[in-house]
Amino acid sequence: MTVRRLVLPLLLAAACAGLVVAAVRESRRAAEVGEGPERAGGRVERCLVCHDDPDESPGGAHAADALGCEACHLGNRLAYDKRRAHAGLEREPGALDTVDRTCGRSGCHVREVERVTRSLMATGRGLIAVDRWVFGEAPGPDGTETFRELLAVARPSPAQDHLRRLCAGCHLGTRGENRDDAVSGVGSGCASCHAARRAPGTAGRHEPIDARVPDERCRGGHSRSGRVSLSYAGLVELRPGDPAATTRLYDGRPAAAAEPDVHGEQGMSCVDCHTIPDVMGDGRSYAHEEAQAEATCEGCHPPAAAADGAPWGAAGDALVRDLLRLRGEARGPLEPARWTRRGVPLWNVRPAHAFAGGDGEAAEAPWALAGKLDGRLHPLRPTPADADHGLRGHERLACVSCHAAWAPSCATCHTRFDAAGRQWDFGRGAEVSGAWVEESERFGWGPPALAVLGDRIVPAMPGMILTVDAAGTGRAALERRLFAALDPHATRRESRSCASCHAEPVALGLGSGTLDLGPGGPRFEPAEPAAGEAGVAADGWVALFPSRPGEGTRAGLRSLDAAEQRRVVRVGTCVPCHGESSDAIYGDFGGAVGALFAGGSACTFRAPEWVRGTAER
Amino acid sequence: MATVGSRSRREFLDTAWRWVAAAGAALAPLGVLGILSRAGGRPREIVLDPGILERAAREGGVAVEGVYVRVRDGVPDVLSLRCRHLGCRVRPDPARGGFECPCHGSRYGLDGRVHSGPARSDLLRPAVRRSGDRWIVELGADDD
Amino acid sequence: MIEPAAGPRCRCGDLALGFLAVTVLSGVALAPLYRPEAALESVEAIEAGLPWAWLLRAVHGFAALGFLLATVAHLVDAVRAGGRERLPAGPWWRSTLLLPLAVLAMLGGFVLRGDAESLAALAVWRGVLETIPLLGAPLATLLLGPPGAGFGAVTAHHAGTFSLLLWLIAADHGRRMWPTGRSWAVALLSSAAIAGVVPLPLGPAEPTGVGLLGPWYLLGLQGMLLDLPPATAWLVPVFLAGGVGALAHVQGRARTATLAALGALLAAWVGWTVRLLLAGAG
User: Fold this and answer.
1) What is the span of the domain harbouring residue C123?
2) With an 8 Å Cβ cutoff, is B89 touching chain C?
3) Is the domain of B34 the same as that of B49?
4) Could you report the per-residue pLDDT of C86-111, keeping only the tens digit for each?
5) How far is it, in rounded angstroms, from Cα C194 to Cα C190?
6) What ipTM was estimated for this complex?
7) In this complex, which of A7, A18, A33 lies closest to C186 when CB atoms are compared?
8) A240 to each of A231, A253, A417, A506, how far by Cα in Å?
9) Which of A62, A229, A325, A391 is in Cβ range 3.0-4.6 Å of A209 for a Cys bridge?
10) Same structural domain, B50 and B82
11) Is residue B94 situated within a structural domain?
12) Looking at the 3D structure of chain C, how many domains does it have?
C-alpha cells in the first residue's frame, strides 16, 4: 500500500525531470533549426537553412538556390538536424566511385560521366600497361588493366604497387586526400577539371563549377611525365639545386624559361585545340593517349590545296551539339566545318566571315579559331604549298617533327623501392611501409630525336632510360633504354634547321656527342658514354648504325635503323652549302649525288666516299 | 384458413427476408473483395535510354528504379529487383557478386537465380519492348 | 464461482486503457502534422522542424509501447489468475484480438515513418498477407492499399480502424469507456518522462547497407522468416491468439498443455529474435 501511494509522486517527479531534459533538447533543437530557405528548384532542400551563405553556392548553372546541395553532395535533404542531414554526405562530388549518384545522376550528366569513366584520364590503361611492361610483368606495352582494377588488387605486383603509390595520385579516380600537387586543391573525378581552384583568401567559399576549363587545371596532371603543360607555357622543370633554374613552377619545383609554344604565345588555351573526346573520351576505352586524342595540326592548318571543310550537316558529336545549344550558338547544315581525325566537328573553328566582327586580323585568313575561354579570334593559315612542305623524302614526317622546337628530357631515371620509407597507397587509402623513390641525374631540354611510329616519323625523347630496383637490393634488376614519342607542345612557326636533323647526333637518336661526317666515314663520339654499351651515349637511344633499332614505349615505336640513319646523314654532308629546301639538289638527291661522284656536277665539294652509298632519293 | 394462410405467408416472408439478408451479407464482402482484388497497383513503365544501356554494357549492369539492366547482344536483359520472398528490394552486391535482400538475406546470382536464403524462386524478368532508340520495361504488380 | 486470485493483481488492464487514451490523444494532435504523400519529409519536420512536435511523437510512441506492455502484463496476470472465470467466453475471445490489433496499429505507425526500413517493413507486411489463401491479396489491398499507392490506406487504418477497434474492444472488455484518473496520470506521466529523454528512431531515406530489421516486437517473426515459410508470419500470431482464446474452454491438463504450447511458441519467438540479431551482426 505504501509503495502504491508513492507511485504517483515518483512518476510526477520523473515526468518533471523528463520535461526538464525535453526543454533542454527543445531549446537546442530550436537553436539548430535555423532560418533560411527550405526549398530549391521547387523541392524541399533543408540543407539551405544552414548553408544559405551565397559563398557556399557554386553559382551559375549549379547555384544552390536552383539545385540545392543534395543533388551533388548527397546526404539527407529532408533532415532538420546536422547529424541526420550529413549522413551519407559526399564531400567530393564528382569522385568517380560515387559519380553515378552525383554528376552522373539521371537527368544530369549521364553521358559525360559514361565517357569520362572510360577515358584514359580515368582508366590510365596506357600508363599501367607501359609500366608493367617496363617492370617485366607484361610481354608488351599494351594492356586492358585499369586503375579501378589496379587499386582493388589485394596483393599488388611491384609495378602495380609503384603505380598505386605514385601514378595513381593524378588519376581521376583517386580521391582528393593525399593527391598530388595542383589536383588536390579541389577534388577528384569531374571536379578535378570543372571546379575552379580557390583563390588565396577565399577559403570556405564554394568553388565555381564551369565547363570552361582554363590551362592551370590541366597542369595538375600534365606538368608531369611529358610535361606538355609546362612546355606549352615555355617552362622547363629542373632538378632541385640546378644552377640553370631561373624561376619556380606553381608548386615550387625549380624551372627555367624556354621558348613557349606559338599557340600558347598567341593566348590560346589547351581546350582551344583539344576537343571533348580528346579529354573526356568518346565512350570507347583506348589503349594509349594518341589513340584517344583526335585533334590534329591539319584540322586547323590543312594543306592550302585541300578543299574547304565538309559541311556540318547532321553529323557531329552529340555532346558538341548540346554544347552549342547551351551556348546559344547555331550552325547551318551547309556551313563548312573543320573536323578532327575521327569526324568530330571543331565547333570553335569557322570561316572567318562567320564570326561576328571577324573582319579584323582574323579576316587575314579564310578561317579563324575562337578561343573557347575568351572568344578571341585567331586567324588560321593553311599549310603552304611551298618547297619546305613539298620537300621530297619528307612525306612521312609529322608536322611536329620539324615544328617542335624543343622537348623536355629526363635522360636517366633510377626507380628503387626503399623498404625503410613510408608512402601513401591509393589502393588501400592508407600510408603503408616502404616507398618508391625515383631519382634522375639530368633534367634538361633540347631538340628531340626522330623516331618511327608506324608509318610516321615523329619526335621522341628519352622517356625511360632507367633502372628498376624493385627489391630494394641496391642493384638494378632491370635496365631499360626506351624513348617515348610525344608532341612536345613546343611548336614554333619556324621549323628546325636542316642541319638540326641531318647533321646533329640528337636527331638520329644518338644523344649528346660529336658526329663526324668527315672522310673517315660517319663516326659518333658520345659526350658521356653509357656504361656497358659501346658507342651509346648516356642520354642516347642507340649507337650510330645500330644492328637493330632502339625500343620505344609503344609497340610500333623504334629509333631510326641503320639504313635510315645513313640516308639522313648523307644529306648532312651537303647541308652546309645547300641549306635551302628549294635547292635544286633536293629535287632528286640520289641523282645529284650520283652526278657529283660521276663528275657531271658543277659542285666542287669533294664528298667523302661513304656518301656515294647506294643511290637512292 | 385466412389466418393460417396469412401466418404462413408472414413466416414465408420472414424466411425469405432472412435468406435475402443472408445472401446480401454473404455477397457484400465478396463484392468488396472482388473490387479489392482488382485494385492492384497500376503497371509501371521504366524507360531505358541509350545512355543507361551504354552504361549497363560498360559496367556489366546498372540498377534503375527497381530493376537491374544488363545488355546482351544489344538487347537489354532486365531483372526485377523485387525479392521473391516477401517483396523487399534486393540490391546488387558488388563484393560477392549477385544480389542480396536486406530483409531476410536471400541471395541471387547475377543471372537472377536464387542461390540461398528464404526465397525459393528466381528474380522475375519483366517484359521489355523497343521504342525508337529506347526500350520500355513493363513492370507488373509482381515485378514491382 | 470466482476462484481466488493466484497471486498479487496489478491494475494493468486499466493502465492499458490509460496508455491507449494517451496514445490516441497524442495521435490526434499529431495527425495534422503528418502528410502521407510526403511521409518522411513530414516526420522529419515533426522530429526537428516544429516546436515540441518531437515530444508529442515520442509520447505517442512510448504510450503505444506502454499499451502493448500493459496489455501483455494484464494477459499474463489474467492467465495466472485463471482468467476464464472472470470473463465469459465471448468477451474473452473478442479480447484476444487486442494484442494483434495493437501490434498492427504499431506496425502501421512504424511504416508511416517512410524511411528505408519502413518501406521494407511495408513490403514484408504485404508479402506476408498475400500468403493467406484466397483472402490474402484483397486483404493486403484492404489494409495497405494497392502496391505502390503510398501510405494513404495505412494512415487511415492506423489512425482510424485499428484505434477505434482497440478502444471499442478494450472498453467492452473492461466495461468502461474511460480509464480511471489514476491510470490517466500514470500513463501520461510515465510516457512523458521517457519521451523527454529517449529519442524515437528515424532512419535515412535510402538503405545504408546494413540489414533491415523492422520493429523490435516483431523481430521473432522476422527471424522465423529467415528459416520458415512466409505463412509462418501470420500462422504464429493466429496460433498465439487462438491458444489464448482456447484457454476459455479448457481446464486441467488440457489447459496445462495449451499453456505449454503457448510457452513453446513464445520461446521460439525469443529464440528467433536472437537468431535474427546474430545473423544481422554476422
Assistant:
1) 12-201
2) yes
3) no
4) 678 888 899 999 999 999 999 999 99
5) 6
6) 0.88
7) A7
8) 18, 7, 21, 25
9) A62
10) yes
11) yes
12) 1
